[in-house]
Design brief:
Elements lengths: L5 H13 L3 H10 L5 H31 L8 H49 L1
Helix pairs in contact: 1-3, 1-4, 2-3, 3-4
Protein backbone atom coordinates (compact mmCIF):
# COMPACT_ATOMS: atom_id res chain seq x y z
CA UNK A 1 0.00 0.00 0.00
CA UNK A 2 1.46 3.40 -0.95
CA UNK A 3 2.13 6.03 1.67
CA UNK A 4 -0.67 8.46 2.42
CA UNK A 5 0.21 11.84 0.95
CA UNK A 6 -0.58 15.24 2.40
CA UNK A 7 -3.17 15.67 -0.35
CA UNK A 8 -4.87 12.42 0.73
CA UNK A 9 -4.90 13.64 4.32
CA UNK A 10 -6.33 17.02 3.31
CA UNK A 11 -9.02 15.37 1.21
CA UNK A 12 -9.96 13.06 4.06
CA UNK A 13 -10.17 15.89 6.60
CA UNK A 14 -12.36 18.01 4.32
CA UNK A 15 -14.66 15.12 3.38
CA UNK A 16 -15.08 14.17 7.04
CA UNK A 17 -15.79 17.74 8.17
CA UNK A 18 -18.36 18.48 5.46
CA UNK A 19 -19.71 14.94 5.16
CA UNK A 20 -19.54 14.75 1.37
CA UNK A 21 -17.13 13.47 -1.28
CA UNK A 22 -14.51 15.94 -2.45
CA UNK A 23 -15.94 16.09 -6.00
CA UNK A 24 -19.29 17.33 -4.66
CA UNK A 25 -17.57 19.83 -2.38
CA UNK A 26 -15.48 21.17 -5.26
CA UNK A 27 -18.58 21.89 -7.32
CA UNK A 28 -20.33 23.52 -4.35
CA UNK A 29 -17.31 25.73 -3.66
CA UNK A 30 -17.21 26.85 -7.29
CA UNK A 31 -20.95 27.33 -7.88
CA UNK A 32 -21.86 28.92 -4.54
CA UNK A 33 -18.72 30.36 -2.94
CA UNK A 34 -20.63 32.76 -0.69
CA UNK A 35 -22.77 30.00 0.86
CA UNK A 36 -19.83 28.52 2.76
CA UNK A 37 -16.72 30.71 2.78
CA UNK A 38 -14.91 28.27 5.07
CA UNK A 39 -15.40 25.49 2.54
CA UNK A 40 -14.04 27.79 -0.14
CA UNK A 41 -10.99 28.52 2.04
CA UNK A 42 -10.35 24.83 2.69
CA UNK A 43 -10.66 24.05 -1.02
CA UNK A 44 -8.22 26.85 -1.93
CA UNK A 45 -5.68 25.54 0.54
CA UNK A 46 -6.16 22.01 -0.80
CA UNK A 47 -5.64 23.30 -4.36
CA UNK A 48 -2.41 24.99 -3.33
CA UNK A 49 -1.33 21.76 -1.69
CA UNK A 50 -2.11 19.86 -4.87
CA UNK A 51 -0.21 22.25 -7.12
CA UNK A 52 2.85 22.99 -5.04
CA UNK A 53 3.72 20.89 -2.08
CA UNK A 54 2.39 17.46 -3.04
CA UNK A 55 3.92 17.37 -6.52
CA UNK A 56 7.13 19.01 -5.30
CA UNK A 57 7.55 16.37 -2.60
CA UNK A 58 7.18 13.62 -5.20
CA UNK A 59 9.72 15.23 -7.54
CA UNK A 60 12.36 15.63 -4.83
CA UNK A 61 11.77 12.12 -3.51
CA UNK A 62 12.23 10.67 -7.00
CA UNK A 63 15.40 12.72 -7.49
CA UNK A 64 16.83 11.52 -4.18
CA UNK A 65 15.96 7.92 -4.98
CA UNK A 66 17.69 8.22 -8.34
CA UNK A 67 20.80 9.76 -6.81
CA UNK A 68 21.01 7.28 -3.95
CA UNK A 69 19.80 4.06 -5.57
CA UNK A 70 21.36 0.80 -4.37
CA UNK A 71 24.61 -0.08 -6.09
CA UNK A 72 25.16 3.49 -7.29
CA UNK A 73 28.22 5.29 -6.01
CA UNK A 74 27.59 9.02 -6.23
CA UNK A 75 30.20 11.12 -7.98
CA UNK A 76 31.69 14.10 -6.20
CA UNK A 77 29.42 16.54 -8.07
CA UNK A 78 26.37 14.41 -7.08
CA UNK A 79 26.92 15.16 -3.40
CA UNK A 80 25.81 18.77 -3.82
CA UNK A 81 22.74 17.63 -5.77
CA UNK A 82 21.88 15.10 -3.05
CA UNK A 83 22.23 17.70 -0.31
CA UNK A 84 20.22 20.26 -2.27
CA UNK A 85 17.47 17.78 -3.08
CA UNK A 86 17.26 16.66 0.55
CA UNK A 87 16.91 20.27 1.72
CA UNK A 88 14.31 20.99 -0.96
CA UNK A 89 12.39 17.88 0.09
CA UNK A 90 12.34 18.99 3.71
CA UNK A 91 11.03 22.43 2.67
CA UNK A 92 8.31 20.86 0.52
CA UNK A 93 7.29 18.55 3.37
CA UNK A 94 7.14 21.52 5.75
CA UNK A 95 4.91 23.37 3.27
CA UNK A 96 2.64 20.32 3.11
CA UNK A 97 2.38 20.15 6.90
CA UNK A 98 1.62 23.88 7.02
CA UNK A 99 -1.19 23.48 4.49
CA UNK A 100 -2.63 20.59 6.49
CA UNK A 101 -2.52 22.71 9.64
CA UNK A 102 -4.27 25.54 7.82
CA UNK A 103 -7.06 23.20 6.69
CA UNK A 104 -7.34 21.92 10.26
CA UNK A 105 -7.72 25.50 11.53
CA UNK A 106 -10.43 26.22 8.95
CA UNK A 107 -12.30 23.12 10.08
CA UNK A 108 -11.97 24.14 13.72
CA UNK A 109 -13.33 27.60 12.86
CA UNK A 110 -16.28 25.97 11.09
CA UNK A 111 -17.03 23.82 14.13
CA UNK A 112 -16.75 26.82 16.46
CA UNK A 113 -19.12 28.84 14.26
CA UNK A 114 -21.64 25.97 14.19
CA UNK A 115 -21.48 25.68 17.98
CA UNK A 116 -22.02 29.42 18.37
CA UNK A 117 -25.00 29.31 15.99
CA UNK A 118 -26.60 26.46 17.95
CA UNK A 119 -26.07 28.34 21.22
CA UNK A 120 -27.64 31.48 19.76
CA UNK A 121 -30.59 29.51 18.40
CA UNK A 122 -31.09 27.83 21.78
CA UNK A 123 -31.09 31.19 23.58
CA UNK A 124 -33.59 32.64 21.14
CA UNK A 125 -35.87 29.62 21.54
Amino acid sequence: MPDVTALDQATSMIEKAWGRPIEALESIAVRRPTDDPLLLSAMHIRSALLVTADSTVAVHQERLHALTRPGHVPAFYDLQRITSSAADLRVAQAESRTALQAISHVIQAREAAATAERATAARLA
